[in-house]
Write a structure and sequence with these properties.
Distance between the termini: 44 Å
Largest sheet: 5 strands, mixed
Radius of gyration: 15 Å
Strand content: 25-35%
Helix content: 25-40%
Number of domains: 1
Order of helices and strands: EEHEHEEH
Shape: globular
Number of strands: 5
Number of helices: 3
Structural class: alpha+beta
Strand order of the largest sheet: 3-2-1-4-5
Length: about 100
């Protein structure tokens, strides 16, 4: 099982999804459909356990990296999913850009 933090519609609701190991593929497949809209979460993803959480808990879990995947779900045009490894890599790249930019 994977822990997926889900931001539904720019903070409308926040979720923790204890999801199957193929969660990234499930989300990627869903959001690639041009008719995707996150209007009826969590029923769009039936496997695993969904728990709605307050923003403060969501932010704490995100900041402390207590997740495997992070998903921002709205429409097919502006939804995304990425792994904790991707997140850490992006932080490293931002630091390098900042650090090298000062040289």
């Amino acid at each position: 099982m994977l822990t997926v933090l889900v931001d539904e519609e720019y903070g409308y609701r926040n979720w923790v999804w204890q999801a199957p190991d193929n969660a990234k593929e499930l989300i990627s497949d869903a959001i690639s459909d041009e008719y995707f809209f996150a209007s009826n979460l969590p029923t769009q993803f039936t496997e695993g356990t969904w728990t709605e959480i307050p923003y403060e808990e969501y932010k704490e879990r995100f900041d402390s990296e207590q997740w495997d995947l992070h998903a921002m779900l709205h429409t097919y045009e502006d939804s995304m999913v990425y792994s904790i490894e991707d997140h850490k890599h992006w932080i490293e790249l931002e630091f390098l850009d900042w650090y090298l930019g000062d040289k």
